[in-house]
Protein backbone atom coordinates (compact mmCIF):
# COMPACT_ATOMS: atom_id res chain seq x y z
CA UNK A 1 0.00 0.00 0.00
CA UNK A 2 1.22 3.49 -0.86
CA UNK A 3 1.97 5.91 1.95
CA UNK A 4 3.36 9.35 2.64
CA UNK A 5 6.53 10.07 0.70
CA UNK A 6 5.84 7.50 -2.01
CA UNK A 7 5.55 8.48 -5.62
CA UNK A 8 1.97 8.78 -6.86
CA UNK A 9 1.39 6.43 -9.83
CA UNK A 10 1.41 8.14 -13.22
CA UNK A 11 1.35 5.21 -15.62
CA UNK A 12 -2.42 5.02 -16.06
CA UNK A 13 -3.95 7.28 -18.69
CA UNK A 14 -7.02 9.02 -17.32
CA UNK A 15 -9.70 10.59 -19.51
CA UNK A 16 -12.04 13.52 -19.05
CA UNK A 17 -14.30 15.84 -20.98
CA UNK A 18 -13.17 19.46 -20.44
CA UNK A 19 -16.04 21.83 -19.63
CA UNK A 20 -16.92 24.33 -22.34
CA UNK A 21 -19.82 26.80 -22.52
CA UNK A 22 -20.96 25.22 -25.80
CA UNK A 23 -21.77 22.08 -23.83
CA UNK A 24 -23.14 23.66 -20.68
CA UNK A 25 -26.29 21.49 -20.83
CA UNK A 26 -25.99 18.40 -18.67
CA UNK A 27 -27.08 16.05 -21.47
CA UNK A 28 -24.70 17.65 -23.99
CA UNK A 29 -21.12 16.44 -24.29
CA UNK A 30 -17.99 16.95 -26.33
CA UNK A 31 -15.13 14.51 -26.85
CA UNK A 32 -12.96 13.14 -24.03
CA UNK A 33 -9.27 14.05 -23.80
CA UNK A 34 -6.40 12.29 -22.02
CA UNK A 35 -5.14 13.47 -18.65
CA UNK A 36 -1.48 12.52 -18.43
CA UNK A 37 -0.40 12.55 -14.79
CA UNK A 38 3.30 12.45 -15.67
CA UNK A 39 2.76 15.89 -17.22
CA UNK A 40 0.34 17.22 -14.62
CA UNK A 41 2.15 16.35 -11.38
CA UNK A 42 5.77 17.64 -11.64
CA UNK A 43 6.21 20.90 -9.75
CA UNK A 44 2.52 21.06 -8.85
CA UNK A 45 0.29 20.44 -5.85
CA UNK A 46 -2.65 18.32 -6.87
CA UNK A 47 -5.54 17.04 -4.76
CA UNK A 48 -7.20 13.76 -5.73
CA UNK A 49 -10.48 12.54 -4.41
CA UNK A 50 -12.19 9.36 -5.50
CA UNK A 51 -15.82 8.34 -5.25
CA UNK A 52 -17.60 5.02 -5.71
CA UNK A 53 -19.60 6.31 -8.61
CA UNK A 54 -21.19 9.25 -10.35
CA UNK A 55 -24.80 9.87 -9.35
CA UNK A 56 -24.66 7.44 -6.40
CA UNK A 57 -26.38 8.86 -3.34
CA UNK A 58 -23.71 9.32 -0.64
CA UNK A 59 -20.97 10.79 -2.79
CA UNK A 60 -23.31 13.08 -4.66
CA UNK A 61 -25.04 14.39 -1.58
CA UNK A 62 -22.13 14.83 0.81
CA UNK A 63 -18.65 14.08 -0.41
CA UNK A 64 -18.01 16.08 -3.57
CA UNK A 65 -19.73 19.29 -2.46
CA UNK A 66 -17.13 19.65 0.32
CA UNK A 67 -14.57 20.09 -2.47
CA UNK A 68 -16.67 22.03 -4.96
CA UNK A 69 -17.80 24.52 -2.32
CA UNK A 70 -14.21 25.14 -1.21
CA UNK A 71 -12.42 25.69 -4.50
CA UNK A 72 -11.28 29.18 -3.45
CA UNK A 73 -9.78 27.78 -0.22
CA UNK A 74 -7.85 25.11 -2.13
CA UNK A 75 -6.55 27.80 -4.47
CA UNK A 76 -5.43 29.97 -1.54
CA UNK A 77 -3.53 26.99 -0.13
CA UNK A 78 -1.62 26.68 -3.38
CA UNK A 79 -3.39 23.69 -4.88
CA UNK A 80 -3.05 23.75 -8.66
CA UNK A 81 -5.72 21.23 -9.55
CA UNK A 82 -8.35 19.00 -7.97
CA UNK A 83 -8.88 15.67 -9.74
CA UNK A 84 -12.08 13.76 -8.97
CA UNK A 85 -11.84 10.08 -9.86
CA UNK A 86 -14.50 7.46 -10.56
CA UNK A 87 -14.57 4.40 -12.79
CA UNK A 88 -17.50 5.87 -14.71
CA UNK A 89 -16.78 6.83 -18.30
CA UNK A 90 -15.87 10.44 -19.20
CA UNK A 91 -19.34 11.22 -20.56
CA UNK A 92 -21.01 10.20 -17.31
CA UNK A 93 -18.44 12.07 -15.21
CA UNK A 94 -18.91 15.18 -17.32
CA UNK A 95 -22.69 15.05 -16.89
CA UNK A 96 -22.27 14.48 -13.18
CA UNK A 97 -19.94 17.44 -12.72
CA UNK A 98 -22.45 19.71 -14.42
CA UNK A 99 -25.34 18.26 -12.41
CA UNK A 100 -23.33 19.05 -9.27
CA UNK A 101 -23.14 22.63 -10.49
CA UNK A 102 -19.48 22.76 -11.44
CA UNK A 103 -19.42 24.68 -14.71
CA UNK A 104 -16.13 26.51 -15.11
CA UNK A 105 -14.06 26.74 -18.28
CA UNK A 106 -10.96 27.03 -16.09
CA UNK A 107 -11.44 23.27 -15.42
CA UNK A 108 -9.67 23.65 -12.07
CA UNK A 109 -11.63 20.63 -10.91
CA UNK A 110 -11.24 17.75 -13.36
CA UNK A 111 -13.73 14.87 -13.24
CA UNK A 112 -11.64 12.02 -14.62
CA UNK A 113 -12.13 8.37 -15.41
CA UNK A 114 -9.90 5.84 -13.68
CA UNK A 115 -10.31 3.00 -16.19
CA UNK A 116 -11.31 -0.21 -14.37
CA UNK A 117 -9.92 1.39 -11.19
CA UNK A 118 -6.37 0.67 -12.40
CA UNK A 119 -4.82 3.78 -10.89
CA UNK A 120 -6.65 3.22 -7.60
CA UNK A 121 -5.50 -0.40 -7.54
CA UNK A 122 -1.88 0.76 -7.73
CA UNK A 123 -2.38 2.66 -4.47
CA UNK A 124 -3.35 -0.53 -2.64
CA UNK A 125 -6.08 -3.12 -2.23
CA UNK A 126 -8.16 -0.90 0.02
CA UNK A 127 -8.41 1.74 -2.71
CA UNK A 128 -10.67 -0.46 -4.83
CA UNK A 129 -14.06 -1.96 -3.95
CA UNK A 130 -15.59 -5.02 -5.59
CA UNK A 131 -19.30 -4.26 -5.88
CA UNK A 132 -20.01 -6.97 -8.47
CA UNK A 133 -22.64 -8.52 -6.21
CA UNK A 134 -24.62 -5.29 -6.56
CA UNK A 135 -24.13 -5.23 -10.32
CA UNK A 136 -21.70 -2.32 -10.07
CA UNK A 137 -18.45 -4.14 -10.88
CA UNK A 138 -15.07 -3.11 -9.50
CA UNK A 139 -15.00 0.49 -8.34
CA UNK A 140 -12.48 2.91 -6.95
CA UNK A 141 -13.21 3.32 -3.24
CA UNK A 142 -13.78 6.62 -1.60
CA UNK A 143 -10.42 8.18 -0.78
CA UNK A 144 -8.47 11.42 -0.87
CA UNK A 145 -4.86 12.36 -1.53
CA UNK A 146 -2.59 15.37 -1.65
CA UNK A 147 0.27 14.99 -4.12
CA UNK A 148 3.13 17.48 -4.06
CA UNK A 149 5.56 17.39 -6.98
CA UNK A 150 4.57 13.78 -7.65
CA UNK A 151 4.99 12.67 -4.02
CA UNK A 152 2.17 11.62 -1.70
CA UNK A 153 1.81 13.88 1.34
CA UNK A 154 -1.69 12.76 2.37
CA UNK A 155 -3.50 9.56 1.45
CA UNK A 156 -6.52 8.19 3.29
CA UNK A 157 -9.05 5.61 2.19
CA UNK A 158 -12.52 5.11 3.63
CA UNK A 159 -13.75 1.71 4.74
CA UNK A 160 -16.11 0.67 1.97
CA UNK A 161 -18.41 3.44 0.83
CA UNK A 162 -18.39 5.36 4.10
CA UNK A 163 -17.83 9.09 4.09
CA UNK A 164 -15.89 10.40 7.09
CA UNK A 165 -13.34 13.11 7.84
CA UNK A 166 -10.71 11.01 6.01
CA UNK A 167 -11.97 12.08 2.59
CA UNK A 168 -13.69 15.29 3.68
CA UNK A 169 -12.20 18.37 2.03
CA UNK A 170 -11.64 20.05 5.41
CA UNK A 171 -9.13 17.34 6.42
CA UNK A 172 -7.08 18.07 3.33
CA UNK A 173 -7.32 21.82 3.78
CA UNK A 174 -5.90 21.40 7.30
CA UNK A 175 -2.93 19.47 5.92
CA UNK A 176 -2.12 21.93 3.17
CA UNK B 1 -27.47 -17.10 -29.32
CA UNK B 2 -28.61 -14.45 -31.73
CA UNK B 3 -32.26 -13.43 -31.80
CA UNK B 4 -34.43 -13.59 -34.89
CA UNK B 5 -37.78 -11.91 -35.32
CA UNK B 6 -40.42 -14.47 -34.35
CA UNK B 7 -38.25 -16.04 -31.64
CA UNK B 8 -39.50 -16.36 -28.10
CA UNK B 9 -37.98 -13.81 -25.75
CA UNK B 10 -35.98 -15.72 -23.10
CA UNK B 11 -37.18 -16.20 -19.53
CA UNK B 12 -35.51 -14.87 -16.39
CA UNK B 13 -34.09 -11.69 -17.89
CA UNK B 14 -33.47 -9.14 -15.14
CA UNK B 15 -32.25 -5.58 -15.44
CA UNK B 16 -31.79 -3.11 -12.58
CA UNK B 17 -33.40 0.29 -12.35
CA UNK B 18 -34.52 3.14 -10.19
CA UNK B 19 -38.20 3.70 -11.06
CA UNK B 20 -39.06 7.04 -12.63
CA UNK B 21 -42.49 8.54 -12.01
CA UNK B 22 -43.63 10.55 -15.04
CA UNK B 23 -46.10 12.45 -12.88
CA UNK B 24 -43.41 13.94 -10.66
CA UNK B 25 -40.35 13.86 -12.90
CA UNK B 26 -40.56 17.56 -13.77
CA UNK B 27 -39.78 18.48 -10.18
CA UNK B 28 -37.44 15.57 -9.41
CA UNK B 29 -33.76 16.27 -8.95
CA UNK B 30 -31.33 14.35 -11.14
CA UNK B 31 -29.10 14.10 -8.08
CA UNK B 32 -31.66 12.57 -5.73
CA UNK B 33 -31.05 8.88 -6.25
CA UNK B 34 -32.99 6.13 -4.65
CA UNK B 35 -31.83 2.53 -4.30
CA UNK B 36 -31.93 0.46 -7.50
CA UNK B 37 -34.33 -2.48 -7.69
CA UNK B 38 -34.44 -5.49 -10.03
CA UNK B 39 -36.60 -5.21 -13.14
CA UNK B 40 -37.85 -8.72 -13.90
CA UNK B 41 -39.05 -8.77 -17.49
CA UNK B 42 -41.14 -11.91 -16.89
CA UNK B 43 -43.19 -9.95 -14.37
CA UNK B 44 -43.54 -6.96 -16.68
CA UNK B 45 -44.75 -9.19 -19.54
CA UNK B 46 -47.29 -10.80 -17.21
CA UNK B 47 -48.59 -7.40 -16.17
CA UNK B 48 -49.02 -6.22 -19.76
CA UNK B 49 -50.11 -9.49 -21.42
CA UNK B 50 -53.84 -8.90 -21.15
CA UNK B 51 -53.89 -5.14 -21.52
CA UNK B 52 -54.70 -3.13 -24.65
CA UNK B 53 -51.02 -2.12 -24.91
CA UNK B 54 -49.03 -5.37 -24.88
CA UNK B 55 -46.01 -4.16 -26.86
CA UNK B 56 -42.77 -3.76 -24.94
CA UNK B 57 -40.12 -1.66 -26.66
CA UNK B 58 -36.50 -2.07 -25.59
CA UNK B 59 -34.05 0.49 -26.92
CA UNK B 60 -30.38 -0.07 -26.19
CA UNK B 61 -27.56 2.47 -26.35
CA UNK B 62 -23.81 2.05 -25.78
CA UNK B 63 -23.76 4.73 -23.13
CA UNK B 64 -25.79 7.27 -21.21
CA UNK B 65 -24.74 10.88 -21.78
CA UNK B 66 -22.77 10.00 -24.94
CA UNK B 67 -23.32 12.41 -27.80
CA UNK B 68 -25.24 10.41 -30.46
CA UNK B 69 -27.80 8.73 -28.26
CA UNK B 70 -28.53 11.83 -26.26
CA UNK B 71 -28.93 14.04 -29.26
CA UNK B 72 -30.58 11.80 -31.84
CA UNK B 73 -31.64 8.45 -30.59
CA UNK B 74 -33.79 8.57 -27.47
CA UNK B 75 -35.51 12.01 -27.66
CA UNK B 76 -37.91 11.02 -30.51
CA UNK B 77 -39.28 8.23 -28.32
CA UNK B 78 -39.83 10.63 -25.46
CA UNK B 79 -41.60 13.22 -27.62
CA UNK B 80 -44.01 10.53 -28.87
CA UNK B 81 -45.06 8.92 -25.59
CA UNK B 82 -48.79 9.39 -26.14
CA UNK B 83 -48.56 8.00 -29.69
CA UNK B 84 -46.54 5.04 -28.47
CA UNK B 85 -49.26 4.12 -26.02
CA UNK B 86 -52.37 4.90 -28.02
CA UNK B 87 -51.37 4.25 -31.64
CA UNK B 88 -48.57 1.70 -31.26
CA UNK B 89 -50.00 -0.15 -28.23
CA UNK B 90 -46.78 0.13 -26.27
CA UNK B 91 -47.23 -0.56 -22.57
CA UNK B 92 -43.59 -0.15 -21.60
CA UNK B 93 -40.62 1.66 -23.10
CA UNK B 94 -37.33 0.39 -21.66
CA UNK B 95 -34.10 2.23 -22.39
CA UNK B 96 -31.05 0.16 -21.48
CA UNK B 97 -27.28 0.48 -21.40
CA UNK B 98 -24.41 -1.09 -19.48
CA UNK B 99 -24.14 1.98 -17.26
CA UNK B 100 -25.28 1.42 -13.70
CA UNK B 101 -28.82 2.12 -12.53
CA UNK B 102 -27.83 5.38 -10.80
CA UNK B 103 -26.41 6.81 -14.01
CA UNK B 104 -29.39 5.67 -16.08
CA UNK B 105 -31.80 7.16 -13.59
CA UNK B 106 -30.09 10.54 -13.68
CA UNK B 107 -29.91 10.46 -17.47
CA UNK B 108 -33.52 9.35 -17.83
CA UNK B 109 -34.87 12.05 -15.57
CA UNK B 110 -32.93 14.75 -17.40
CA UNK B 111 -33.96 13.51 -20.86
CA UNK B 112 -37.61 13.23 -19.89
CA UNK B 113 -37.55 16.72 -18.43
CA UNK B 114 -35.94 18.12 -21.56
CA UNK B 115 -37.84 16.20 -24.20
CA UNK B 116 -41.16 14.81 -23.04
CA UNK B 117 -44.27 16.85 -22.57
CA UNK B 118 -46.21 14.83 -20.05
CA UNK B 119 -49.40 15.94 -18.32
CA UNK B 120 -50.87 14.52 -15.16
CA UNK B 121 -53.95 13.26 -17.00
CA UNK B 122 -52.05 11.84 -20.01
CA UNK B 123 -52.00 8.19 -21.01
CA UNK B 124 -48.42 6.99 -21.50
CA UNK B 125 -46.44 3.77 -21.46
CA UNK B 126 -44.29 3.01 -18.44
CA UNK B 127 -40.93 4.63 -19.13
CA UNK B 128 -38.03 2.70 -17.63
CA UNK B 129 -34.32 3.52 -17.78
CA UNK B 130 -32.56 0.30 -16.79
CA UNK B 131 -29.08 -1.15 -16.53
CA UNK B 132 -28.08 -4.33 -18.34
CA UNK B 133 -25.27 -4.95 -15.83
CA UNK B 134 -21.95 -5.59 -17.60
CA UNK B 135 -24.05 -5.89 -20.83
CA UNK B 136 -24.66 -9.54 -19.92
CA UNK B 137 -28.10 -9.94 -21.47
CA UNK B 138 -27.06 -8.12 -24.64
CA UNK B 139 -23.78 -10.00 -24.97
CA UNK B 140 -25.56 -13.34 -24.62
CA UNK B 141 -27.60 -12.52 -27.73
CA UNK B 142 -24.90 -11.02 -29.95
CA UNK B 143 -26.08 -7.50 -29.12
CA UNK B 144 -22.98 -6.05 -27.46
CA UNK B 145 -20.03 -3.98 -28.65
CA UNK B 146 -16.47 -4.00 -27.38
CA UNK B 147 -15.53 -0.40 -26.63
CA UNK B 148 -12.43 -1.34 -24.64
CA UNK B 149 -10.23 0.57 -27.06
CA UNK B 150 -11.95 3.74 -25.83
CA UNK B 151 -11.71 2.65 -22.21
CA UNK B 152 -15.44 1.91 -22.08
CA UNK B 153 -15.33 -1.90 -21.82
CA UNK B 154 -18.09 -4.16 -23.13
CA UNK B 155 -21.20 -2.17 -23.87
CA UNK B 156 -24.70 -2.89 -25.09
CA UNK B 157 -24.92 -2.27 -28.85
CA UNK B 158 -27.30 0.29 -30.29
CA UNK B 159 -30.48 -1.65 -31.08
CA UNK B 160 -34.24 -1.65 -30.87
CA UNK B 161 -36.34 -4.67 -29.91
CA UNK B 162 -40.10 -5.12 -29.64
CA UNK B 163 -41.64 -7.97 -27.67
CA UNK B 164 -45.33 -8.88 -27.56
CA UNK B 165 -45.97 -9.39 -23.85
CA UNK B 166 -48.76 -11.91 -24.47
CA UNK B 167 -47.01 -14.29 -26.89
CA UNK B 168 -43.50 -13.27 -25.75
CA UNK B 169 -42.52 -13.26 -29.41
CA UNK B 170 -39.94 -10.85 -30.75
CA UNK B 171 -41.85 -8.67 -33.21
CA UNK B 172 -38.95 -6.48 -34.28
CA UNK B 173 -35.20 -6.44 -33.95
CA UNK B 174 -32.99 -3.78 -35.49
CA UNK B 175 -29.31 -3.47 -34.64
CA UNK B 176 -27.08 -0.70 -35.91
CA UNK B 177 -24.02 -1.81 -37.85
CA UNK B 178 -22.89 1.72 -38.63
CA UNK B 179 -23.10 4.99 -36.73
CA UNK B 180 -26.65 6.29 -36.67
CA UNK B 181 -30.13 5.27 -35.63
CA UNK B 182 -31.47 3.83 -38.91
CA UNK B 183 -32.62 0.49 -37.44
CA UNK B 184 -33.13 1.40 -33.80
CA UNK B 185 -34.64 4.89 -34.04
CA UNK B 186 -38.27 5.70 -33.34
CA UNK B 187 -39.38 5.53 -36.98
CA UNK B 188 -37.84 2.12 -37.70
CA UNK B 189 -38.91 0.47 -34.47
CA UNK B 190 -42.51 1.68 -34.58
CA UNK B 191 -43.06 1.27 -38.34
CA UNK B 192 -44.28 -2.31 -37.92
CA UNK B 193 -46.52 -1.68 -34.91
Automatic annotation (TrEMBL), chain A:
Family matches, as CDD domains: PRX5_like (cd03013)
All residue ranges annotated as the Thioredoxin domain in the record: 2-176
Entry's Gene Ontology cellular component terms: mitochondrion; peroxisome
Gene Ontology BP annotations: cell redox homeostasis; cellular response to oxidative stress; hydrogen peroxide catabolic process
Keywords: Antioxidant, Oxidoreductase, Peroxidase, Redox-active center
Gene Ontology MF: a single term: thioredoxin peroxidase activity
Active site: 59 (cysteine sulfenic acid (-soh) intermediate)
Reported function: Thiol-specific peroxidase that catalyzes the reduction of hydrogen peroxide and organic hydroperoxides to water and alcohols, respectively. Plays a role in cell protection against oxidative stress by detoxifying peroxides.
Family named by the database record: Belongs to the peroxiredoxin family. Prx5 subfamily.
Protein name according to UniProt: Redoxin
Species of provenance: Suhomyces tanzawaensis NRRL Y-17324
Automatic annotation (TrEMBL), chain B:
InterPro entries, per database record: PRX5-like, Redoxin, Thioredoxin-like_sf
Active-site residues, Swiss-Prot/TrEMBL: 69 (cysteine sulfenic acid (-soh) intermediate)
BP terms from Gene Ontology: cell redox homeostasis; cellular response to oxidative stress; hydrogen peroxide catabolic process
Molecular function in Gene Ontology: thioredoxin peroxidase activity
Assigned keywords, A-Z: Antioxidant, Oxidoreductase, Peroxidase, Redox-active center
GO cellular component, one term: peroxisome
Entry keyword Translocase: no
Pfam families according to UniProt: Redoxin
Keyword Oxidoreductase assigned: yes
Cross-referenced SUPFAM superfamilies: Thioredoxin-like (SSF52833)
Redoxin domain residues: 48-189
Role description: Thiol-specific peroxidase that catalyzes the reduction of hydrogen peroxide and organic hydroperoxides to water and alcohols, respectively. Plays a role in cell protection against oxidative stress by detoxifying peroxides.
Family label: Belongs to the peroxiredoxin family. Prx5 subfamily.
Name of the protein in its database record: Redoxin
Amino acid sequence: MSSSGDTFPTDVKLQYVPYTKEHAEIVSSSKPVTLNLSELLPGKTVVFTSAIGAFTPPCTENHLPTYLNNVSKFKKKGVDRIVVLTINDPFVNSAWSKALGYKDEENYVIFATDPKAELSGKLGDNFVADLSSEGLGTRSSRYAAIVDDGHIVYLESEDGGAFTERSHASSLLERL
Amino acid sequence: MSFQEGDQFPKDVTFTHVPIDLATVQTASALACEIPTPLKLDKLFDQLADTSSPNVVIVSVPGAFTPTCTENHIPPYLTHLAALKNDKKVGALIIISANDAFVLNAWGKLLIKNEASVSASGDYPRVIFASDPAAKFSAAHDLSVDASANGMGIRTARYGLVVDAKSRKIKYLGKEVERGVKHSGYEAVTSKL
